[in-house]
Design a protein that fits this description.
Structural class: alpha/beta
Largest sheet: 6 strands, parallel
Oligomer: single chain
CATH class of the largest domain: Alpha Beta
Strand order of the largest sheet: 2-1-3-4-5-6
Low-confidence stretches: none
Helix content: 40-55%
Modified residues (4-aspartylphosphate): 49
Strand content: 5-15%
GO molecular function: DNA binding
Radius of gyration: 17 Å
Order of helices and strands: EHEHEHEHEHEHHHHH
Keywords: DNA-binding, Phosphoprotein, Transcription, Transcription regulation
CATH architecture of the largest domain: 3-Layer(aba) Sandwich
Number of helices: 10
Pfam family, one: GerE
Number of strands: 6
Distance between the termini: 29 Å
Protein name: Response regulator transcription factor
Mean pLDDT: 83
CATH superfamily of the largest domain: Response regulator
């Protein structure tokens, strides 16, 4: 489902997704219409603008959080014109699986947008590199992060964007086993080795630590 008050962007995305083999269940212009559409037929993913009518403030974000609470199986990919730190961290600190945050400029990079959409649909995360960079500028829990090597920071940055170990290996031109070693080292240095969670959850915790959330 698509929710954006810009008819041009909304219809353009609908046509793009249809051309790529996706079925668009609804394309609406405000948060109330989105929630009604999701209630009628929950989609795999909802692509949502942060600011929509009537006030053009955070209506889209509040709808996204409501969807995550009422329909946890629905992925949420938020689009924003600017990096809004509070919104990104609020999405992550709730139930971060199946969420994404992209700048609208990223939508014109079709392959990256479709990749992010697929990751969110699969229950993973997809965060715009610029969002990650600006969130890191906040500072946060630096002591344990200072122990990471330059390569471990690269790997963690890729994890924060939502990439799998295989994807990270391809992007950094290293072997998958090397990435796995770096990921385990990150878990150890961030004191996540004894956490009674799955590997996927530890990845989320590591990202949250990294973002200082």
């Amino acid at each position: 489902m698509l929710a954006d008050d810009s008819t041009l962007l909304r219809e353009g995305l609908a046509r793009l997704l249809a051309d790529e083999g996706h079925r668009v269940l609804a394309a609406v212009g405000d948060a109330d219409a989105l929630l009604a559409a999701v209630a009628a037929e929950p989609p795999d993913v909802a692509v949502i603008d942060v600011r929509m009518p009537p006030d053009h403030r955070d209506e889209g974000l509040r709808a996204a959080l409501a969807i995550r609470e009422r329909w946890p199986g629905v992925g949420v990919l938020v689009l924003s014109q600017y990096v809004e730190r509070r919104y990104a961290t609020e999405l992550l600190t709730g139930s971060p699986e199946g969420v994404g945050y992209l700048l609208k400029d990223r939508v014109v990079e079709i392959e990256e947008f479709l990749d992010a959409l697929d990751r969110v649909a699969e229950g993973r995360t997809a965060f715009d590199p610029e969002v990650v960079r600006q969130l890191l500028a906040r500072g946060g829990q630096r002591r344990s992060l200072d122990s990471l090597t330059a390569r471990e920071r690269e790997v963690l940055t890729q994890m924060a964007e939502g990439h799998t170990n295989a994807s990270i290996a391809a992007r950094l031109f290293v072997s998958r086993s090397a990435v796995e070693k770096h990921v385990n080292a990150i878990f150890t240095k961030l004191d996540l080795t004894n956490t009674a969670t799955t590997t996927h959850s530890r990845r989320v915790l590591a990202v949250l630590r990294y973002l200082g959330a």
